[in-house]
Amino acid sequence: MALYRWDPSTKKFSKSTLRGWLDGPEHLLSALLLLGEGGKGKSKLMHTLAQEVCIAYDKPSYLYGKNVDALGILSYAGEVRKAAVLMLTDCDLKIARGGNMGSEALKSLLDVTEGGSIQDTRYRPASFPPGLVRILAFNGDAKGYGDFFTKYEQYGIAAAIQALSEEDGEEKATKVMLNLSSDDQAAARRVSIALCIGEEDLIKAETKLALMAATTSKAKEAHARREAYWAAQRNVA
Question: The whole model's pTM is what?
Answer without folding.
Answer: 0.81
